Amino acid sequence: MIQVFRKKPSDFKTHVYVTAAYVKHEDKILILQLSQEKEEAFHYGVPAGKLENGELPEDGMERELFEETGIRIDSKDSIRSLDLLFMRKPKCDYIYHLFEVTLAELPEIHLSKEHQAYRWLSLEEISTLPLMLGAIEAIEFYKELQK
User: Fold this and answer.
1) In the 8-state DSSP scheme, what is residue 105?
2) Is-above-0.90 flag for pTM?
3) How confident is the model at residue 146 (pLDDT cuts 50, 70, 90)?
4) Alpha carbons 139 and 95: distance in angstroms, whole number
5) What is the pLDDT of residues 19-45, one digit of tens each?
6) Residue (of 19, 44, 15) closest to 98 by Cα position
7) Which residue intervals define the domain Nudix hydrolase in the entry (predicted)?
8) Looking at the predicted structure, is the pLDDT value of residue 7 above 90?
9) Average pLDDT, stretch 74-97?
10) Domains defined for the chain, CATH in brackets
11) Out of 12, 16, 40, 55, which could bridge 94 as a Cys pair, Cβ 3.0 to 4.6 Å?
12) What is the spatial distance between Cα 143 and Cα 107, in angstroms, rounded to a whole number?
């Protein structure tokens, strides 16, 4: 079970910082399917991961994006910091940094062992997939930020 908040709850105790890349090409978003070895096997989510000690959110997003997909960001102009969500799992509170990365051309994707497939889909198509815990709420929040 997961709870997702747009404002930081008064009893929120941050354990982890997570950064996520909403990689956009035209009207499609890059979505990754977790491999069968992962806790939420076969579920989908955007490229994301925990920040390492002292890492800035944007740097962590670029590192995770490269590690999970092989995508290198050439221009900082293609990155937009969007907002934060506050997520709570039973034993962990974490801050989720959302970034949008806009690409002019479709990149070649090289998946890490964490993922077994990827797709470029519209936000509506993504909503029909089995998504990771918290991903539905994050996608809905991302949709609102697009208006």
Assistant:
1) S
2) yes
3) confident
4) 15
5) 999 999 999 999 999 999 888 889 999
6) 19
7) 12-143
8) yes
9) 92
10) 3-145 (3.90.79.10)
11) 16
12) 23
Question: Residue 139: how many CB atoms within 10 A of its CB?
Answer: 22
Tokens of 88: 């709570």
Chain position carrying tokens 């029909």: 128
Residue 44 near residue 126, CB atoms below 8 Å: yes
Contact of 98 with 61, CB cutoff 8 Å: no
Backbone angles phi, psi at 122, to 5 degrees: -75, 160
What does the angle CA 37 – CA 41 – CA 47 come to, to the nearest 5 degrees?
95
- In contact, 121 and 26? CB cutoff 8 Å: no
Query: For the chain, where are the alpha helices, taking DSSP H only?
Result: 57-69, 123-126, 135-145
